[in-house]
Write a structure and sequence with these properties.
It is a single chain. The chain is of the alpha/beta class. Helix content is about 35%, strand content about 20%. The protein is globular and about 60 Å long. The chain binds ligand BV8.
Length: about 250
């Protein structure tokens, strides 16, 4: 049964998600054998230098991923839906911090969501910085509808070497939470991979890793559950909601 935002005075939960939570929805991860970085070099497609050197190559890399992300057969899975249920039924604040640039969390119903690595379905103008919803290809022939500049649009995502988004808000919820859950991330990319250490420093939260296999940071978590997200995440959320806030102090 859902809990109104006003009544959410219970312990806070922060959930960090990575590409593994979207794998069973049909989106590729990065570091699995068939992952994105097995086919592309980060330096060629996911840095500001790459975009400056060859914007069309970078735009096409994201255009191909955007076409995949908006296709009819890519839909939220049971893990995304379980997190939306947690936010609705947990008697405290639930914040999902995702490294993913797809829109599957919001389509599953998650509202309190931070896209720390940006959003594939948004374009940002490098001339006026305005951000536009964008579901089609971005090309150098496109003009910014705000300032009219031509060929200045880029995906509104965070590349390597760029500052992740909403880091202040993330730091605040990490400091306050009673439970930190990491789902579907290999723990390779910072600062996201360092969040579990940040939470441990505050010394109050339980830390849990839910992943297909142990991540780079597995030893930093007090407990872990391994398996496909669509199986282990709904079961974990069921148990969490059944136990309620009392389950966090045992
Ligand atoms: C920063 C968006 C400074 C675009 C991404 C030199 C200069 C500057 C910085 C650095 C530098 N050297 C190193 C750094 C830091 C760098 C970094 O960490 N590099 C790594 C490679 C060492 N970080 C940065 O540059 C960041 N910015 O540092 O700025 C700063 C920072 C803070 C404060 C002040 C200044 C920016 C990083 C963001 C880069 N953009 N993506 C795009 O998507 O193209 S990162 C990219 O990797 C994705 O966003 C992805 O989210 C992220 C992490 O990958 P994962 O999500 O974990 O995916 P992966 O495939 O790795 O793992 C999937 C997991 O799922 C696996 O464990 C697998 O087992 C599991 N799985 C698979 N199937 C399932 C499953 N689990 C459950 N169920 C399944 N079915």
């Amino acid at each position: 049964m859902s809990v109104s935002d006003e009544a959410k005075d219970g312990p806070g939960i922060v959930v960090l998600t990575g590409a593994g939570i979207s794998k069973e929805s049909g989106l590729a991860t990065f570091r699995d054998a068939d992952g994105i970085w097995a086919k592309h070099r980060i330096e060629d497609v996911a840095t500001p230098e790459a975009y400056a050197r060859d914007p069309e190559r970078v735009l096409e890399f994201y255009n191909a991923r955007r076409r995949g992300a908006v296709s009819d057969n890519v839909t939220p899975n049971a893990a995304h839906r379980a997190l939306a249920r947690l936010e609705s039924e947990w008697p405290g604040p639930v914040t999902v911090v995702t490294q993913n640039i797809d829109d599957l969390h919001e389509r599953a119903g998650t509202r309190n969501l931070i896209h720390m690595h940006g959003e594939l379905l948004k374009a940002r103008c490098t001339a006026c910085s305005d951000v536009h919803d964008w579901r089609g290809d971005i090309t150098l022939a496109d003009a910014c509808s705000t300032c009219g500049a031509l060929g200045t649009l880029r995906p509104n995502v965070v590349w390597f070497g760029e500052m992740p988004m909403q880091m202040d808000e993330i730091g605040e919820v990490l400091a306050e939470c009673a439970l930190f859950v990491s789902i579907g991330t290999s723990g390779n990319v910072y600062p996201a991979a360092g969040f579990v250490q940040q939470v441990r420093m505050f010394g109050r939260a339980k830390t849990v890793e839910l992943n297909l296999e142990p991540s780079e940071g597995a030893t930093m978590f007090a407990s872990s559950i391994y398996g496909p997200a669509t199986e282990i995440v709904p079961a974990f959320i069921d148990d969490l909601l059944t136990a309620g806030p009392g389950g966090l102090t045992s």
